[in-house]
TrEMBL record:
Residues 509-532, 690-714 are annotated as: Disordered. InterPro entries: 3-IsopropMal_deHydase_lsu, Acnase/IPM_dHydase_lsu_aba_1/3, Acoase/IPM_deHydtase_lsu_aba, Aconitase/3IPM_dehydase_swvl, Aconitase_4Fe-4S_BS, Aconitase_4Fe-4S_dom, AconitaseA/IPMdHydase_ssu_swvl, IPM_dehydratase_rel_enz. The lineage of its organism: Eukaryota, Fungi, Dikarya, Basidiomycota, Agaricomycotina. It comes from the Eukaryota. Its EC number is 4.2.1.33. Residues 703-714 have a biased composition (Low complexity). This is 3-isopropylmalate dehydratase. Residues 690-702 have a biased composition (Gly residues).
Length: 714
């Protein structure tokens, strides 16, 4: 019989279909995972779970680990060990735990003494570990970076990290297809960072919720791999599960001859398959957005959400011109935190620090872009009021940059030249903003306190960041370039361009992993090492209690649990971290008027959030662990954000409970969270036969709720 003719499929459809292991009647799918990247923050509890259960890593050959989030980026000339190099005890503990775990389980590891060490989303591509058509996961939401290669790449929580280590599979529900097409020619001085910031400004931080975005059009086809990675990196800031660009000759040229790329005949076969990874003519997208390239100018954020963007030629918004009450309140809150007056010209905003780095913008092309701005200004110097740092994305990027003389250009102008690491992107390490300091940053998130408690972040491109460093304020980089494109200034010859592949070395594989029963130990059933897991929590059917209302949209995971509380190797003890930056003034440490600080809400067992996009941002599962002190929490107006799907909610949606919380969306028309204040909400959880529901209690709650139920029968 002739083979069945498949309907037109998207790039996402094709990769998904090629990795399905099993599909349940309700759509829950077991996917095979080709590549797993591991770092020190989201892996300790996962490895502890393996050890307790007496399991080994199923595919150590498909797993690559490094340290990046916690580490200092100061000089390593005298580096001897993690113990002597990392001063902060909890950070040191996570790094040492990873070093021990990679030895115990036989996982390839790039440590601080290895020049291949770097940010996890930089080292994967540069080693050829990331390939078109693969599935790739990591306990970090910006795993979407790897989608630039035509891969399905997304962040996962610690429980999923353990599951992938043990089984090389993960449970998912298929996302919707979304396409963002940008056609035309970009203006001079406009970079990939400006493009993705503009896109997020158009679609909003919830615009891609429940979707995988394919970036299409001439702009992306003309981008380098580094530029494509910057775009895909910030897909999560647009609410998406992942972002991807179809592989092409640019992709193949980048990957050829990298240490972990296919070789010889295998390369030829791989390229033949990769060329099939394109969206078919006539394939359907659930959401289709078109943008004109000529509408994009250098773009900067003004507020505390990546969607708070403005052209550098524009102004800070005035909430008086906003009619929607929740949006107006959000803008007012952002302006207050950022200490900006409505209508302020973007170019009048003075800055204190500049950070060029992160998994968004720390590759060689990014550093060249910033260096060219410096070269375009005669006798360029960092402004006296500014402290500026450049942090390469990996040891190999640093080595190449130094071979090209970029370090000399930066240091001569007064920039601090650092070692590889996540650095000031999230401030889990010593590189942080002080309360009230304002930073022009090439990172990906401008949440409250993201770069340090009370710190204020303006996201921008490397070129724009360099320009801000030289002038002391946000400025249109085109003014410094004299109208020349940042990729074609006359001083480009002063940079000795080299090929990144000249700095690569063959990957050294680790010794064989220990087998269960050797160094590993059978599960005790007590779970002391990793803390109690949700499956050990006593189930319930109905929960009643005081309801605390939270009237706020876009409650991100940095709000729920700030990054400084992620430095733990356990699942427990995070109650005091919950909403820490909202409950305490970052400058004084004094208690604020946040709802959970007030009576009777300080004894609330239910939290109802009436704003959309609850749980957006990071895939940190720690956010869910901290919520154990609030047995029920929720959101309304649509599903939670995809970052929250990893960190707070089970990735298979409303079917199961993995982290001890059951998301229950309450009908908006029944009442508001204000009506629920001080009242009670009854959350009824039933078995598969009876379904599951929630009904308003005496206070008449609305929004959505999630119960601390343990593993509820479903």
């Amino acid at each position: 019989m002739p083979a069945a003719v498949l309907p037109p499929r998207t790039l996402y459809d094709k990769i998904w279909d090629d990795h399905v292991v099993d599909v349940q009647d309700d759509g829950t799918t077991l996917l095979y995972i080709d590549r797993h990247l591991v770092h020190e923050v989201t892996s300790p509890q996962a490895f502890a779970g393996l050890e307790q259960a007496g399991r080994k890593v199923r595919r150590p050959d498909c797993t690559l680990a490094t340290v990046d989030h916690n580490i200092p980026t100061t000089s390593r000339k005298t580096y001897k060990s993690i113990k002597t190099f990392v001063d902060e005890p909890e950070s040191r503990g996570q790094c040492e735990a990873l070093e021990e775990n990679v030895k115990k389980f036989g996982v390839t590891y790039f440590g601080l003494s290895d020049r291949r060490q770097g940010i996890v989303h930089v080292i994967g591509p540069e080693q050829g570990f990331t390939l078109p058509g693969i599935t790739c996961v990591c306990g970090d939401s910006h795993t979407s970076t790897h989608g630039a290669f035509g891969a399905l790449a997304f962040g996962i929580g610690t429980s999923e990290v353990e599951h992938v280590l043990a089984t090389q599979t993960i449970l998912q529900r298929k996302a919707k297809n979304m396409r963002v097409t940008v056609e035309g020619e970009l203006h001079e001085g406009v970079t990939s960072k400006d493009v993705i910031l503009y896109i997020i400004g158009v679609i909003g931080t919830a615009g891609g919720t429940g979707c995988v975005i394919e970036y299409a059009g001439s702009v992306f086809r003309n981008f380098s791999m580094e530029a494509r990675m910057s775009v895909c990196n910030m897909s999560i800031e647009g609410g998406a599960r992942a972002g991807m660009v179809a592989p092409d000759e640019v992709t193949f040229a980048y990957l050829k001859d990298r240490p972990l790329s296919p070789k010889g005949e295998e390369w030829d076969r791989a390229v033949a398959y990769w060329k099939s990874l394109r969206t078919d003519e006539g394939a359907k997208f659930d959401i289709d957005i078109s943008i004109r390239a000529e509408d994009i100018v250098p773009t900067v954020t003004w507020g505390t959400s990546p969607q708070d963007v403005a052209p550098i030629t524009g102004n800070v918004p005035d909430p008086a011109n906003i009619t929607d009450a929740m949006k107006k309140n959000g803008v007012e809150r952002s302006l207050k935190y950022m200490n900006l007056a409505p209508g302020t010209r973007m170019e009048d905003i003075k800055i204190d620090k500049v950070f060029i780095g992160s998994c968004t913008n720390s590759r060689i092309e990014d550093l060249r872009s910033a260096a060219k701005v410096i070269l375009a200004v005669k006798d360029a110097k960092v402004a006296d009021t500014v402290n500026a740092m450049v942090v390469p994305g990996s040891g190999l990027v640093k080595q190449q940059a130094e071979a090209e003389g970029l370090d000399v250009i930066f240091k001569r102008a007064g920039f601090d030249w650092r070692e590889a690491g996540c650095s000031m992107c999230l401030g889990m390490n010593p590189d942080q903003l002080k309360p009230g300091e304002r930073c022009a940053s090439t990172s990906n998130r401008n949440f409250e306190g993201r770069q340090g408690p009370g710190g204020r972040t303006h996201l921008c491109s490397p070129a724009m960041a360099a320009a801000a460093a030289l002038t002391g304020h946000l400025v249109d980089v085109r003014k410094l370039m004299g109208g020349a494109a940042t990729t074609g200034v006359t001083s480009v010859e002063q940079i000795k361009l080299t090929n990144s592949k000249d700095y690569l070395t063959d990957t050294v594989l680790p010794p064989p992993a220990a087998q269960p029963g050797a160094e590993l130990h059978p599960a005790s059933g007590k779970g002391e090492a990793a803390g109690p897991v949700p499956s050990n929590v006593t189930p319930f059917k109905v929960l009643k209690g005081i309801t605390a209302p939270l009237h706020m949209p876009n409650v991100d995971t940095d709000m729920i649990i700030p990054k400084q509380f992620l430095k733990t190797i356990k699942r427990t003890g995070l109650g005091q971290a919950l909403f820490h930056t909202l409950r305490r003034d970052p400058a004084t440490g004094e208690l604020t008027d946040f709802v959970l600080n007030k009576q009777p809400y300080d004894k609330a067992v239910i939290l109802v959030c009436d704003g959309p996009n609850f749980g957006c941002g990071s895939s940190r599962e720690h956010a869910a662990w901290s919520l154990y002190v609030v047995p029920l929490q929720g959101y309304k107006d649509g599903a939670c954000a995809d970052g929250g799907q990893d960190g707070l909610w089970d990735p298979v949606g409303d079917r199961a409970v993995v982290r001890g919380h059951l998301p229950v969306q309450l009908a908006a028309e029944r009442a508001s969270a204000r009506q629920a204040a001080g009242g009670a909400v009854h959350c009824a959880v039933r078995g598969r036969g009876g379904g599951r529901g929630a009904r308003g209690g005496p206070g008449g709650a609305s929004g959505a709720a999630a119960g601390r139920a343990g593993r509820v029968p479903v």
